[in-house]
Amino acid sequence: MHTLLVAANPDPGSLTHHVLGRLEAALQPGSVEIADLSEERFDPWFTPADRRAYHEGGNYPADVMAEHRRLERATDLVLVFPVYWWSMPALLKGWIDRVFVNGWAFEHSPASGLRPKLQHLTTHLLPIAGDDSGAYERHGYESALRTQIEHGIVDYCGSRRGRTAFIYESEQLSPEATVRGVDRAVRSISEAIQARLAG
């Protein structure tokens, strides 16, 4: 069992990074690796070389192959990110665009259709939302995010759906509520991963 925590927030003092540290500690003494995409300066730009690799199902750029190796070591993937416009930050979306590609995360052709390839991986989501859960429910924000990421990415690539644990009201003037939300989300994700380890 090996967990890869992937975070996308440019501010090292952010709540995202606090949650990342809490989650890493909660998963000890298990095997945990952190991919801080901002600190590592991952390039999210989808280039003509990426497009060619997508069509060919191979010949991936070196930085993409390095991410493939990290993910191939992992049994669990946790995406930790602030919610921007009902979705993930562009940096994290660019990571997925470039890394979860044809020939590696799935295979698709007109002749054979879709063949998902990430069955070895369980993907968990830890979105950090500025608004409260009531607003997310009223406006369908949570449903939209889950459909886009859980169904559109995780299911498409054949990864098992893990736990999705929102932290709400991250920008409200209620530190107690934020602490409770962080505790709940970290416990939910870590318990799901540790239960798989125990099983």
TrEMBL record:
The lineage of its organism: Bacteria, Bacillati, Actinomycetota, Actinomycetes, Kitasatosporales. Keywords: Oxidoreductase. This is NAD(P)H-dependent oxidoreductase. It comes from the Bacteria. Belongs to the NAD(P)H dehydrogenase (quinone) family. Residues 1-184 form the Flavodoxin-like fold domain. The keyword Oxidoreductase applies. Gene3D superfamilies: 3.40.50.360. Signal peptide: none annotated. SUPFAM superfamilies: Flavoproteins.
